Amino acid sequence: MCKGGPEYSGYNTKKAREEGHSLKPKTKAIYLPLIDMPPAEYDTVLTSMLKVKRLSEIAGQSFTLLTFDQQLYRYAVEIQWALPEVFPPSSFIVRLGGMHMLMSFIGSVGNLMTETGLADILSSAFGGVHKMLIGKKFPMCMMALRMVVEIILEQLIKDLKVQCYDTLMASLEERGQKSRTCRLWLECLIKSVLLMMAYVRAEREGDWLLHAHCVKAMIPYFFAAGHQNYARSSLLYQRAIENLPRSILAYFLKGEHVMRHMKGLWNGIWSDMFIESTFMRYGHGRAGIVGITLKPETLKTWALSRHICSQLMEDLAELRGESDEYRFQDSHKEEAASRISSDKKDTEAFKRKLEMCIHPLKPELYIQSN
Predict the structure, then answer these.
(1) Is the C-alpha dihedral spanning 260, 261, 266, 272 positive or negative?
(2) Which residues make Cβ contacts (< 8 Å) with residue 149, sequence separation at least 6?
């Protein structure tokens, strides 16, 4: 975050606009009937895999892409192993949901930083810190963690007159050799937050190589924090994306692995985040599944008609000229003056709290305090 300017997403959107980047196209999403079966079962996952493969063949597409969150990803991979002739790895690609992976990664950082004082620091400006550090409210948590890391590094960068990333990391590594506390904050917070930022950037910009690099770098954190499910699944995912067929890799290198709600700058998102913020949100919102009768017949009617209702709503919005098809996003809410002022207040609250603590990257202070 630049001093007195917008936060990370706002800054990068502004930078992309100033540099004349072209607007990326909106993703067209067409929803299908829900599969009215328990999701975490092999036959449900197999049904969805067969359905998606058939749709790809009807569309004349030579390969199939399918995204699952971690729980269902495991089932999908096991099915693919059991039926390689039906779902060949060369043409049937199963992806692990990126948004849920990020949430688990934030939870890993929260586990590794337990009882270090980080939660106390975050509580000085934000509420619901416990939920933040287990991966919930991840946009807010990422913003808070970036602010804390910025403040911790700010004075160090000024004192050392750091001009590049390599110089900064060399200095941090040197300090980490002098103190286990310094090493803990460096490895478990500072490096992990920088990794989160790179992971988000990879999706916003559609940078497949950066995405693959970040996935590989995140795996040790899952193992260290005891997030065994994501540790195993992300390792399988990493091996899969390292061996993608050239025909599919060519599309991903063009940034076609991300989705966008509307045409815009620096606004690519993960495919699981796209469905969570559209179709899944509709189902939990007004006229959704929550609060209606639990009669099986009624639920089945709702499940089999929801996709049609959603499409009709989008078509009506397009007729009224309110569809995202006619809108574009070339700015971010973090660029607003009110948001900048709010973020500045949060940063100042963190600074006041950290001034009351021993600086984690100054090992000489630990010796004096002991």
Answers:
(1) negative
(2) 189, 190, 193, 194
Structure tokens at 100: 């849920």
Cβ contact 212:242 at 8 Å: yes
Q: Is the dihedral of CA 239, 244, 249, 251 positive or negative?
A: negative
Contact 131, 137 (CB under 8 A): yes
What Rg, from alpha-carbon coordinates, does the chain have? Answer: 23
Structure letter (DSSP) for residue 23? P
CA gap 125, 122 in Å, rounded: 6
Interval 8-56: pLDDT, tens: 999 999 999 999 999 999 998 888 888 888 999 999 999 999 999 999 9
CA gap 82, 76 in Å, rounded: 10
Q: Give me the amino acid identity at 131.
A: K
Which two structure tokens, joined as six digits, stand for 69? 């969150």
pTM above 0.85, yes or no: yes
Q: Which residue has the tokens 């076609």?
A: 256
Paired strand residues for 264: 24, 329
37 by DSSP, 3-state: which? coil
Rounded CA gap, 199 and 134, in Å? Answer: 18
Per-residue pLDDT reduced to its tens digit, 114-167: 999 999 999 999 998 998 999 888 899 999 999 999 999 998 888 888 888 898
Angle, helix 70-82 to helix 228-242, in steps of 10 degrees = 50
Distance CA 153, CA 223 (A): 27
Q: How far apart are the first and last CA of the chain?
A: 35
Distances (CA, A) of 81 to 54, 66, 70, 77: 19, 15, 17, 6
DSSP 68: E
Mean pLDDT of all residues in 280-308: 71
CB atoms within 10 A of CB 224: 14
Orientation of helix 208-225 relative to helix 191-205, angle to 10°:
150
Enumerate the domain spans of the chain.
11-28+259-330, 99-229+354-361
For residue 286 the two structure tokens come to 């007004």
* Residue 135 CB neighbours (<10 A): 20
